[in-house]
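Onboarding guide, step 5: your first structure request.
Type a short instruction followed by the sequence, for example:

Predict the 3D structure of this protein.
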Amino acid sequence: MKRDFSNVGMGTKSLWAGENGLQVKGATQVPIVQSIAFTYDDIDEWQDVALGHKEGHIYSRNTNPTFSSLEEKVRILEGAEAATCFASGMGAISNTIFSLVQPGERIVSVKDTYGGTNQLFREFLPRINIDVALCDTSDGDQIEEEISKGCRMVYLETPTNPTLKVVDIKRMAEAGHRVGALVVTDNTFATPINQKPLLLGSDIVLHSASKFLGGHGDVLGGVVCGPKELVRQIFHYREITGSALDPFAAYLLIRGLKTLQIRVERQNASAMKIARHLEEQSAVASVYYPGLESHPQHEIAKRQMPGGYGGVMSFALKGDFQTVKRFLARLEFAHRAANLGAVETTVGSPATTSHVEVNARDRAAMGIPDALVRYSTGIEDVNDLIADLDQALGALP
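The system replies with structure tokens like these:
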């Protein structure tokens, strides 16, 4: 049965998209196709599939039925023409950049992207003569001015990791397109439940699927969505360089996506309540969450995140890194770990999570204080999480 997803809600898409015709002998779930290669009795058909003239699968470094289901599900959720998956979020990010930007070309981005992305911009891309202009994330005029000088790609991350800054996607997409640039948006923190970058003018949207899309802290993956031709170029780079997802990982991501809407809605609501509570605590110097009226880009977030403001926040304690260590050690209902977006609350310092690759001086230059805590809200009872935060804060000097 071919289903029409044009007029159904996100919860229905999360459950049913990408599953047509893949079930085996009446099974209700997509199978894990744990096969490297796919056999053909008809050699002409085999050749047609190998050359891309006919749909099918040849080798799982390239495509696989379980991958296809995952890609179709995310494609429909993001409203894209095509999608392709990767072994990790950084696989999705690096393959997108290296497949679409050539030596001698230029990228415009922001200073406080995820640490791994920032390392690409600062360390690896300059080695191959790709110039990267990193702008103040909060200064839309500066970003637009750098774009106007010309570039091949505008790379956005919004909200950013870990300071939850918000970039105006529509404005920067328009600026990028005026100079013929491709606009790429990392939508990991927002998810397609809260934000649709393609509708705001972005050409490519990507995710670390290890986070909210998977949602259970048990699988690595990445996904890129966009126009067929651009995704084809990214896919071709991936199939040759080998950043392929594993079929079992694809299955786990499909399973996680089925509950995406209800998880994200719960996390949105809990994060908002916790952020408001933390603003009132004397041990907290500042709270960074786009849903708060005190957030500098709250009005932009309100326009471009109609589904909600996400499950991640950060807050700075009054003190230093030693204060953070004491605080983290007392939390009972949070994993102290380098992850986010899971059903269990996860907490950490950027110095040990998102920006462990970046030294303290550079973190400070990016606006990441030593006393910052990143808090990824799970689906626990929110009152229990607030009580846990209160007892940990209350124990600080």
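Each response can be followed by summary notes, for example: The longest helix spans residues 260-279.
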